[in-house]
Each structure stands twice: as C-alpha cells, then as structure tokens.
Amino acid sequence: LGLALYASSLCAVRGATFLYHDYCVIGAGPAGLQAAYFLQQAGRDYIVFERSHAPGSFFALYPRHRKLISINKQYTGKSNSEFNLRHDWNSLLSHDRRLLFRRYSRDFFPNADTMVRYLEDFASLLKLQVQYNTAIIHVTLEKNEQAWNGHYFLLTDQDRKNYKCSCLLVAAGTWVPNVVNFPGSEYVEGYETVSINPEDFAGQTVLILGRGNSAFETAENILGVTNFIHMVSRSRVRLSWATHYVGDLRAVNNGLLDTYQLKSLDGLLEGDLEDLAIVKDRKGKLHITLRFYLENRNISAGIDSITLPQDELDNFATRAPYDRVIRCLGWKFDFSIYNRSLRMMPGKGNIKKYPQIKPNYESKGTQGLFVLGTASHSVDFRKSAGGFIHGFRYTTRAVHRLLENRHHGVPWPSTVYPITQLTNSIIKRVNEASGLYQMFSVLADIILLRENATAFEYLEEYPTGVLAELEMQTGRKARNGLFVIIMEYGRNFSGADKDVFYYNRAVGEAQHAWQSNFLHPVIYYYKQLPTEREMRLRPPEWPLPRPDAIHHIVEDFLTDWTAPNAHILPLRRFLENCLSTDLRNFFAESCFLFAFTHQKLPPSCQQGYVRMQGLVGSPELRQHAVQAGLLQDYTHTDFSGDRPPDSHHGSQEQWMRDHGIPVRPLQHLVNAKDE
Fold this sequence. Notes:
Keywords: Endoplasmic reticulum, FAD, Flavoprotein, Glycoprotein, Oxidoreductase, Signal. By secondary structure, the protein is an alpha/beta fold.
C-alpha cells in the first residue's frame, strides 16, 4: 500500500504545474525573515512561505505569560552599533536603523507582543517576499542533473498548489509540543493550552512536568496563589549562570528555587516521566503512582483496587493528591511534511528533537537543504546561542555567504590589510564584534596570511566546524598559514554542578591568561589549513584541532581588551613569534637608522617610511616622542666626528640601544603543547 501511494504521488507530481524560485524558505519567523533579507540584498530569486496570516506566529502564542527572556539592553555606555548588538538579543540584522528592537520597547525583558509587531515591521518595511496563509504540507525531491544540487525540491501547500526550487531553507522552528505518554496522561494539561489566569489556580496543588524555562515560567505565574507546586523532571535543574547557556533556567523565572530551598512547601523531584502513572479518584484528585504498580491492573476499576507507592512507603514524596498536572516539556521539529526521499532524520540523544545537519547547517541526508534558526541548534546545543535570535542571526548570515559562493561564485567577503595592521585588526574585532561574542566557539574570524607575511586577508564569522573546507566553502586560499580568532569560556568553568562564584574565580595577569574562566578571545595559529581528519580527532571539548601555537588574551572584567600591557603587548609578541617579524610601528628617524644598521627593515618601515608614508614630523610630535622615551633628544649631542661620541663606545648593539633603536632576538614560537 505504501509503495502504491508513493507511486501515485509521483504520478501526481509529474502531472502538476510548479511555480519556480531559486530559493524557497519555509517559515517567516525570525530566521526566515533574516534569510529573506540577505537573499533580497543579494538580488536573488526567493519566496518565503508562512502558514499564518502574519510573520512570527510562534510569538503570538509563546511564551504563554508573554515575557521574553531575551535581553533588550538600552544603554551600554558605547555608541558602537556592532558592540551594542552584543547586548541586544532581539534585533535582526539589517541596514535600516529603524529596525533596532530598542526602538520598539524599553523593557529589559520585552513583551512577546512587541516581538510580533517588530517582525511585522521588519517584513513590511524591507518589502520581503513573504507568501502568507500558505502551509507547506509536503516536500519531496525530483532528480534532475541540470539542477544546482542534482535535484529540485517540490513543495505542496494546503490548497494543493505546487512549487519548485533549487535550494530549500527550512526556518520553521520547533513548534510541535513534546508529549510523554504514560497511564493517565490524558489527565495532563499542556503548556500550550493551560490557563494563564492565576485565579484559576487559587488554593490548588499543582504538579508540573518539566524543568525548563517554560516550566518555571508557569510556576512563577501561580506561585503566590497555590497551596504548593511540585516539579518533576528526568534531570537536575540547570542554571544558566552556571552552564553559561542561555537556554537553561534564567534567574527571571527561578522563584520556585527560593520557595523550595527556604522551606515554603514547593519542591523539585527527579524521576523518569515514562515510569509515572496518574490515577484519578472519585473527587477528581490526581494521584501519582508508578507504571509497574499498574501492570495487569484495570485503571477504570477505580483507585481502591490500585496499589499506590505510599501503601508500601508511607513517606513517598508525591503521596499528596494534586488538583492539576501541567506538561511543560518544550517543543520538537515537525518531520511529518518531509518525504522519505529527503532523509530528514532526527538527531540522537538530547538532540533528537532537531534534524540531523552538518556544521555548515546543511542536511546530512540531502544536499541543498539547509536548516536555519532554532531547528539548527543541534550544531551547538547547550554550548552557544545558535538556537536563539542573538545567535542564529549570525549563523543565517554565514549560511547565506556559503550559498553565495557555492551557487553564484561570490567569494566570502574579506578585506586585505598590510601586516602592520594585524594586531590592530584583531584587537578591534574582539572588542566590538557581536557574532564572535554571541556564537562563541562556533563562529570564528579567519586571518589568511599572504606570501612572506607581508599582508593578510580577514574573513569574519566563519563556522569553525567546517574549517577544513575553508577554501572550497569561501573561494579563498589558505596557502601560507592562518590565524583563527574565537571566544571561549574556561575549559572547566561551565556546568550544572559548577560553583561559578568561588573565590579567586577570575584571572588578572597576562602570564596566566590560559587559565581564564570567563569569556575571552583565543587565537589559534596554523602553519597550514587543518585537515578533516584533524578536525575529527581534535581533543574533547576543543572547538578546533591542536594548533601550532595558541594565545589566550586574559579575561577582562569589563570585556574591554585594550589594556596596553595586559592585552595588546602579549598579543603582539605572540604574533611576532609566529611570523618571525617585528610588528611594532616606528618613527621615521628609527627607520632611517635601521636602514644603515640592519639587513632587513621591519614591516612598518618597509610599508611606511620607504614608501614616503607615515606621520609628518613636527616640533611638538618630536618633543612628545622624546618625553615618552620613544626617541633620543639629539639637540644637545655633538655628532661632528666620523664616529659616535666617546660616551657611546662599545658594540654596535649597545650603540643602537643608546640611540633608542630596539634590538632583541626573535623568540621561539609558542608551543601549544607546552601551554
């Protein structure tokens, strides 16, 4: 029967008329709109399908109690727009300054209705190509050698209209509620339908299944009116400030932890929900028991015929009956609309609610199918922010850049600088870049060195998981070595059982930078591009393979890595050792003396002084340099002879030191193993 139905569907497909677009995007939520923006800016042929009458339909219902947990920080003390995005977790990326979320709300935790209005404006003001009231109910493949990926994607909507595209971007999110089936689960109310009026819970006892933000959000709403609330889940509570994962329990929702630990009747329990059973008595009360007590029993016969745990253990924790049981177990991806030919398979273990995708966000089963937004979170689940707007706005941009190179021959955007700007370029990015900051350990800046290290090419926010494929994915060459800049937390600082407030938790001295705990920049140096095998065999919990050299910039309380001695000087010395060159900037007078005393000039002299470029001297500038110890004051020195004055006898090196010309041997490369 299945084969017959599949054959008949193929026949129907062949006889149907299809509306073609190069790109089809399923879902007009934040990720879908962000993808549409980049496609429109690039002038591509695309269409976005949205099942609702407006964008962001998920936020029209969720969160049920309407308070978002994505921060909306109005003031940072900075005017740098890129830096400010580090603390704006709701805005999508665009060129229109009107579409910053802080212009829509001043609340630190905004109302979800504001997000709906924001997304409507984003779609309308930017004139994005969104087709509303279109629910895609079936997706399949059509083999075609002339197609971009060897096949077309065929989509059918609820009205049996058909569409064809070369590349499919799935941004439908995770919206199917997670449901656990056990005896008596029909008595459970779902988070998606339960009342949000606290008065409906007055004087009741409530059991909540789940331990995420939706569970604690529900508890927070009724905490002051219930007799008590119990919460049961398979795993222990995970606090976001301990795990440094924004999807774990946030402080704004954790009032139940106070009432639990301060002995105010509420409590948390651990247990496998599939082992539970619920029995309803004649008064409508719900009793918790275990599944094995009900084996070979008839629940409909009544509670009197059923053994309860308290019959054998009189202090059983959940022996008191409940008035209501609420399910708050989150959501999962909807796999039902995808034909088996697409091989859209769920992940394994704790990422089974997401489809299987590669580190470049492409489906493992089908080339040309990319998953964006919340549904792509399997790449960095419980590690970074890829499941949330402030993370996937950057991963969506990365996917767009990959597609531009693959299908349109547009290389990954890059900028070429002289090698003298290497230190400055890194310092600038680690101090303001939002993509590196939010997608720590997942997106990285790549510095590709030119021949003889005279210049470098800077690529921003490239996915670390496909570093080995960089040349193919970006259209850029990495023939002379590269630096990879990412942000990291300390190796052993994050975890549900970690005490992140212990004494001496922070590192302040540059020589101990590798022990930094808080988020800080890390620079990896590779003499050649890592291979796929090296990526697979990288050390556990390392985002990248072991490099030829590595440098940690010491963590900073203000996340301001501009201190000359603690941050910039160690970084410059590391870069100099890797490149065997001197990256300092010199005044013209020093370059002039170098020309007579050295076989090779420093890069700043080669690219500045020799080309008659640099600062124009003035009496004020010279006086400042003398006072700062950068130049020697020659105004009272007699150089009338053929050699330096008697006071400067000795070796050539000593003479150079006396005249303000730094002379020092190059240090050995930093060995990552030693560090």
